[in-house]
Design goal:
globular, 14% strand, five-stranded mixed sheet, 586 residues, 20 helices
Length: 586
């Protein structure tokens, strides 16, 4: 019995001593170890000499008993082991801090090296001859995505609620029919109808709809506007100034102000390039509509009536053309940025600013046919080995471990959309359809797909400054199928690349490339062994087609790709979020 009691007391003392150790460790962390060393702290042996309460029927444990000596030895060992572990932890933490500091220095150094002299820092760049007031500059510095507090529109609010309630009833009526149908029984597209369904038998649904309709739609006058009186005056002044054009910069998010004549002359200079654009009469869209109608009648026998109705029966409008100033490409603006060093700079009428061409037209004559083809062809993108959907998909493909003797390389296609020849694009699409015919329904014939795609590529009509133009070369800008089309074209060229690499280097490297070469549209990423020279590999890429040319960037430590920052440390790969210096969030 006395031995059992002694064991209990021993366990109790161990618990108390462990608590003391924890206190000592906390004390050292806060005040250092000198006080601890000089203090007259009761040792385990002294603590053991304190009298214990005797339990009736038990014998007193002698301080010199074997059990007590064993206890003293175990506690002392525990104390020193804890001290040793703490020292080891501190050493590990110090090494980790040192490594992290070194990594941060490498990142900062590479960021400094890769930083361009043309980086856009100002919020407002005035390229016009008009002097902007302080209030106008302050308003524009909020960015073109800034939205003033809107005034309440009761009629619009009620219309939105009514349309939402209609969609709720339609979903309740048709969801069971859609579940019963197979994918092949359902049309890929259909026109919207104006049918207003009757009240549902579902009481809960009707209660929700009734609550929505009874929701107050009066505007809340107590909501404070986000524009001051001076800002509202500045906004009206800018709106009334018809000689001023305001656009967002192609990169950097800065707001760019230009004289209307300067902007018009720049765009017309771009459209005068007859290798890409051609002036055309205003009846081009009507001819394209008839061509689509004839193609569907001739090649679209397998289309459902809802699909034919969607492709043929709609009101279209001609697309419009505009340009975004590439101020990061201008040497004149770059020099002024260094001189003025301000969020607002003025550089009147620089002559070296290029523009990015953009076609906007959600209701163009070919837009619905383009949307239809995009639905048909998009499944083939998943069969392209290099294809990635987005940032998360890119992360899934990144390895955790790589060869230490490797480097991070990104490749970019120069002006991909405008440089894809039509014959190359049609050849690429045919290749994927014939290679994997099971990806599309049998009712869609190759002749229909290729003829429809040809119509979209050759009839991209738009207007600017009262004149109509047609795009002669490259992917049709602003069309829905463009990203899918470009992905399949590069995927087709990559099949040639894998074969060339097999003969140029080895089958092993060709297999590695097929698994690890990843691409989002024209942005490519590869972890390349240093035995393979990146510039020599770039030459192999540029041999694929004379119109499709690549550039590359290489770094041993850090490399951004999409919105991901890829970091290599030894043979380990880590990632972080990446915010492009040219993309500022408002």
């Amino acid at each position: 019995m006395w031995f059992d009691e002694g064991q209990k007391q021993e366990e109790k003392s161990k618990t108390i001593w462990q608590g003391k150790l924890n206190w000592l460790n906390e004390y050292e962390n806060n005040f250092g170890s000198e006080v601890f060393v000089k203090s007259n702290i009761t040792t385990p042996s002294n603590r053991l000499q304190k009298p214990r309460k005797r339990v009736e029927g038990s014998a007193r444990i002698s301080n010199s008993s074997p059990q007590n000596e064993h206890y003293r030895s175990e506690i002392t060992g525990l104390w020193w082991r804890e001290r040793k572990r703490k020292k080891q932890r501190q050493n590990v933490q110090e090494r980790a801090k040192s490594d992290d500091s070194k990594q941060r220095r490498n990142i900062q150094e590479n960021a400094r090296i890769n930083q361009t002299d043309n980086q856009v820092n100002p919020k407002v760049i005035n390229l016009s001859t008009i002097d902007l007031s302080n209030n106008e500059v302050n308003l524009l510095s909020k960015g073109l995505k800034f939205t003033p507090t809107p005034n309440g529109n009761k009629a619009e609010h009620q219309t939105d609620i009514k349309e939402f309630c209609r969609k709720l009833r339609l979903s309740e009526i048709f969801h069971k029919d859609e579940e019963a149908q197979t994918t092949e029984d359902m049309p890929l597209v259909r026109n919207k109808t104006g049918w207003n369904p009757p009240k549902s038998k579902d009481k809960v649904l009707e209660e929700v709809i009734q609550s929505l309709k009874e929701y107050p739609t009066d505007s809340n006058a107590s909501i404070k506007g986000n524009l001051s009186k001076n800002s509202k005056t500045a906004l009206k002044t800018l709106l009334d100034n018809t000689s001023l054009i305001i656009k967002e910069a192609d990169k950097g998010g800065a707001v760019v102000c230009m004289d209307k004549k300067y902007y018009r002359d720049k765009i017309l200079e771009m459209l005068s390039d007859t290798s890409y654009y051609e002036s055309i009469d205003e009846h081009a869209d009507s001819r394209t509509q008839r061509l689509i109608h004839d193609t569907i009648n001739k090649y679209g026998k397998g289309l459902m009536k809802e699909e034919k109705d969607y492709l043929l029966n709609f009101e279209y409008t001609t697309s419009y053309f505009y340009g975004l100033p590439k101020i990061h490409k201008s040497k004149i603006i770059a020099d002024e940025l260094k001189k003025q060093n301000s969020e607002y700079i003025k550089v009147p009428i620089p002559d070296d600013v290029p523009f990015r061409p953009i076609v906007g037209g959600p209701n163009s004559v070919t837009q619905r046919l383009s949307h239809f083809l995009d639905i048909i062809l998009k499944p083939f993108c998943e069969e392209v080995p290099s294809f990635i959907r987005d940032d998360l998909d890119f992360l899934n493909y990144l390895p955790e471990q790589v060869e230490e003797n490797s480097t991070l390389v990104t490749f970019d296609v120069i002006s991909l959309y405008t440089n894809i020849p039509h014959d190359l694009g049609l050849e690429a699409v045919r290749f994927w359809i014939e290679k994997i015919p099971g990806k599309i329904e049998t009712r869609f014939k190759i002749a229909f797909i290729l003829k429809s795609l040809q119509i979209i590529l050759q009839n991209n009509v738009f207007y600017f400054d009262g004149r109509f133009y047609v795009q002669k070369k490259g992917t049709a800008m602003g069309t829905r199928v463009a990203p899918t089309y470009a992905t399949l074209v590069l995927g087709y060229l990559e099949e040639t690349l894998y074969n060339n690499i097999k003969h140029r280097y080895s089958s092993e490297f060709a297999s590695y490339l097929r698994l690890n070469w990843k691409r989002f549209l024209d942005d490519c990423f590869l972890i390349l062994n240093k035995k393979i020279n990146a510039l020599e590999f770039l030459q192999e890429l540029n041999k694929l087609h004379p119109s499709i040319q690549f550039t590359c960037s290489e770094n041993d430590v850090i490399m951004p790709s999409l919105d991901i920052l890829v970091k290599k440390s030894g043979n380990s790969i880590k990632t972080d979020m990446y915010c492009n210096a040219d993309a500022r969030v408002y």
